[in-house]
């Protein structure tokens, strides 16, 4: 009788789980390829970005715009820096390029083509997105780095790790690139996890690279070395860097300072220092004591 009761309990729980999965499978995606131009190929998308966003609000808060009058152009080989407090709109600008949302007043084009007309799979194949906390699999370091690059060999993996300043750390580990990282990189430091995610993006080698506060856990020296390597690696490709630490964006071709979803300052590092506005003040504060950008 006990066994029958136990079996019945398992069946009940299994049925409830099945219902939840079934409900999820029945949901229709919000982003579709209904208006996609299926004649496009990767050769048509070379990292030439043009943002012209008049306004954007999240679907569940349509009366509260979170972006207003966002306009900039980014050419292949150029780097864009996005800075501002938490909630200023940095990640939202990135989300629109990743087509997390399609309903906005305005247009984002990639090589002259509205990204909403680019097949989603094709668009995302041209973008490497590295968030602050990327997901790592419970497998080896090597397999984690090569996750999006099926044809990568050991030499390719090691080279990508060198460019993200991870290689020397890996060599010190018991099994090198065969070392298991644990659940979501549990056995690694925060800086090592971030560098592994960057190595994965380097190996994927896409036209557009996005670093969304992806260097927050590494020290200043390591940050400088990684960004220097990326500049050499991506001479003809487009890079976007959202950061709280201004040293992450100081070499960008264009830096946008965001506040409440709007651009309040724009220019390169030297131009923004000369303006003596928010960016210049925060630069001085961070140079003197590493003050967090959100504390001011």
UniProtKB/TrEMBL annotation:
InterPro entries: AAA+_ATPase (IPR003593), ABC1_TM_sf (IPR036640), ABC_transporter-like_ATP-bd (IPR003439), ABC_transporter-like_CS (IPR017871), P-loop_NTPase (IPR027417), Type_1_exporter (IPR039421)
Domain ABC transporter: 51-285
Any one GO MF annotation of this record: ATP binding
Entry keyword annotation includes Membrane: yes
Keyword Transmembrane: yes
One GO cellular component term: plasma membrane
Keywords: ATP-binding, Cell membrane, Membrane, Nucleotide-binding, Transmembrane, Transmembrane helix, Transport
Subcellular location: Cell membrane
Mode of membrane association: Multi-pass membrane protein
PANTHER family to which the protein is assigned, alphabetical: ATP-BINDING CASSETTE SUB-FAMILY B MEMBER 10, MITOCHONDRIAL (PTHR43394:SF1), ATP-DEPENDENT PERMEASE MDL1, MITOCHONDRIAL (PTHR43394)
Protein name: ABC transporter ATP-binding protein/permease
Organism: Lactobacillus helveticus
């Amino acid at each position: 009788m006990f066994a029958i009761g136990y079996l019945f309990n398992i069946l009940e729980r299994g049925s409830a789980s099945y219902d939840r999965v079934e409900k999820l499978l029945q949901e229709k995606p919000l982003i579709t390829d209904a208006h996609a131009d299926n004649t496009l190929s990767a050769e048509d998308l070379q990292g030439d970005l043009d943002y012209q966003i008049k306004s954007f609000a999240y679907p569940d808060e349509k009366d509260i715009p979170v972006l207003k009058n966002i306009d900039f152009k980014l050419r292949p080989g150029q780097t864009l820096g996005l800075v501002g407090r938490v909630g200023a709109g940095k990640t939202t600008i990135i989300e629109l390029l990743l087509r997390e949302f399609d309903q906005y007043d305005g247009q984002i084009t990639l090589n002259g083509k509205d990204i909403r007309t680019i097949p989603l799979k094709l668009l995302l194949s041209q973008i490497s997105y590295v968030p602050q906390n990327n997901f790592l699999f419970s497998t080896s370091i090597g397999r984690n780095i090569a996750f999006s690059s099926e044809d990568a060999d050991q030499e390719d993996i090691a080279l990508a790790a060198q460019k993200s300043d991870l290689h020397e750390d890996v060599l010190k580990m018991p099994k090198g690139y065969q070392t298991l990282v644990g659940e979501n990189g549990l056995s690694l430091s925060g800086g090592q996890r971030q560098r592994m995610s960057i190595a994965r993006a380097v190996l994927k080698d896409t036209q557009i690279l996005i670093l969304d506060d992806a260097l927050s856990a590494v020290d200043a020296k390591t940050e400088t070395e990684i960004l220097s390597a990326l500049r050499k690696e991506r001479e003809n490709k487009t890079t976007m860097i959202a950061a709280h630490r201004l040293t992450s964006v100081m070499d960008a071709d264009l830096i946008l300072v965001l506040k409440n979803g709007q651009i309040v300052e724009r220019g390169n590092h030297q131009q923004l220092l000369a303006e003596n506005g928010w960016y210049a003040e925060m630069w001085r504060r961070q140079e003197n004591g590493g003050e967090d950008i959100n504390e001011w």
